[in-house]
Amino acid sequence: MSDSQERLKAARRRLAKSADEVASAAGISTPSYYDLEMVDGEIESGLSLQALVRLCSELRILPGDLFGSGTTRDKISMEGLVVRIKKHLEEDQIGMSDFEARVGFEIRRCLEDPLSILEWDIECLQSVCKELSVNWMSVLEGMATSEPG
Fold first, then answer.
1. Domain residue ranges in the chain
2. CATH of the domain spanning 78-144
3. Cα 83 to chain center, whole Å?
4. Would you give the DSSP letter of residue 49?
5. CATH architecture for segment(s) 3-67
6. Distance (Å, whole) CA 149 – CA 130
7. How far lies 65's CA from each of 6, 83, 96, 144, in Å?
8. Smaller CB count within 10 Å for the chain: N or C?
């Protein structure tokens, strides 16, 4: 069990919430929630960012608490991330297809609809942010403070 999984389980138990309650609030099934607590890598690749933000909100923790990185001072909005992607494409004189090949994910939809970033998982966010030299936790925490209902 990873540290993130242990923190997730501990946060749920601290609030005396059932897996059903937490899963429902996050918009996922109860078996999917149990996978988050028990299957290595599931938090990073088996959960949309939107569900992750909702999960953390329900457990009254920040994403940084879950990943053990604490909070970040600089928060980057989804729109701010899109601006950084566009700037990167322009400065490096590369097309979106090349950028997607570098990060290993199809993300072009976010250029027109920044809210589509909420459909990404942690692995996608980390890969995009690594390519941009941006702290992925800054983006995740920006989402946690502005995630739409």
1. 3-67, 78-144
2. 1.10.260
3. 18
4. H
5. Orthogonal Bundle (1.10)
6. 28
7. 11, 27, 33, 12
8. C
pLDDT of 119-132, one tens digit each?
Answer: 999 999 999 999 99
Whole-angstrom distance between the N-terminal and C-terminal Cα of the chain? 31
Nearest to 85 by CA among 53, 121, 109: 109
Distance CA 72, CA 64 (A): 8
Hey, do 3-67 and 78-144 end up sharing a CATH topology, with the first three levels equal?
Answer: yes
Place of tokens 């005396």: 16
Confidence at residue 143, expressed as pLDDT on a 0 to 100 scale:
84
pTM of the full structure:
0.88
Q: Give pLDDT, residue 1.
A: 72
